């Protein structure tokens, strides 16, 4: 910055009782050094000049381009409503698709549950071998005489394992060689796939077998 600062008259520090050379003080500070310093600083501040063009440069810096602000797109109310409606429709369509009557898959019924029973022949001589003389009959009808002609569905032997599906308790009574009687008949399938009725006296079953539904026997 330009300008001159007056330093006033110089104090010679002699024995003259604090006199200032060059005449009396113009700032009226007297002999007080602090007052003299304040007066000189005030006078220096008044003499400081503003550099030329300073205010023009300040104004030019204030008028620079403002930072660009990108405005985000605003969603219109009907656009928001359409979006919500589409989402709700999609959810409802999915629920309808899952719960429509045709969506229930019907699994094919598996084979009925069976219980394993073992054939028992009361004749000791027929407990080994598989001769025709030792074969036991599977009947077609549990309510018909066991030995009736045409009431044979197949043959089984002592020790054969059969799959019993169900049992009837009111079939034709059968007596074995030891005198044991029973009206129970088991609907069975042999290992060779032969299906028929086995009299209760031809097994020593100890497992629970469900009763046959109506119309099976």
Describe the overall structure.
There is one protein chain. The chain is of the alpha+beta class and 217 residues long. Among the domains are: 1-60, no CATH class; 115-202, no CATH class. The protein has helices spanning 33-47, 54-62, 77-99, and strands at 115-118, 136-138, 154-156, 161-168, 174-175, 181-182, 185-189, 195-199. It has a 4-stranded antiparallel sheet with strand order 1-4-7-8, with no helix packed on it. The chain crosses the membrane at residues 78-99. Residues 11-21 have a biased composition (Gly residues). Residues 1-38 are annotated as: Disordered. Keywords: Membrane, Transmembrane, Transmembrane helix.
Q: Percent range for helical residues?
A: 10-25%
Mean pLDDT: 78
Query: In angstroms, what separates the terminal alpha carbons?
Result: 127 Å
Given helix and strand content, the structural type is alpha+beta
* Secondary-structure element order, N to C: HHHEEEEEEEE
| Tertiary shape | rod-shaped
Oligomerization category of the chains in this entry: single chain
Largest sheet, described in full? 4 strands, antiparallel
* Global Rg: 62 Å
Count the helices. How many?
3
- In percent, how much strand structure appears in the residues? 5-15%
Q: Name the strands of the widest sheet in spatial order.
A: 1-4-7-8
Transmembrane segments: 78-99
Region (Disordered): 1-38
Keywords: Membrane, Transmembrane, Transmembrane helix
Biased composition (Gly residues): 11-21
């Amino acid at each position: 910055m330009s300008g001159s600062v007056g330093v006033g008259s110089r104090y010679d520090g002699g024995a003259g009782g604090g006199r200032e050379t060059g005449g009396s003080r113009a700032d009226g500070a007297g002999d007080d050094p602090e007052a003299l310093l304040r007066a000189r600083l005030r006078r220096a501040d008044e003499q400081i000049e503003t550099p030329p063009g300073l205010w023009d440069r300040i104004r030019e810096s204030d008028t620079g381009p403002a930072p660009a602000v990108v405005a985000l797109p605003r969603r219109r109310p009907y656009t928001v409503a359409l979006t919500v409606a589409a989402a709700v429709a999609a959810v409802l369509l999915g629920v309808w698709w899952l719960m429509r009557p045709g969506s229930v898959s019907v699994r094919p019924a598996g084979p009925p549950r069976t219980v394993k029973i073992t054939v028992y022949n009361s004749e000791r001589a027929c407990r080994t071998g598989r001769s025709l003389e030792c074969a036991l009959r599977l009947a077609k009808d549990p309510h018909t005489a066991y030995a009736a002609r045409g009431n044979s569905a197949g043959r089984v032997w002592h020790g054969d394992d059969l799959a019993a599906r169900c049992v009837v308790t009111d079939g034709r009574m059968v007596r074995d060689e030891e005198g044991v009687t029973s009206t129970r008949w088991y609907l069975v399938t042999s290992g060779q796939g032969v299906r028929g009725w086995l009299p209760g006296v031809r097994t020593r079953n100890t497992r629970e077998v469900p009763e046959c539904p109506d119309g099976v026997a």
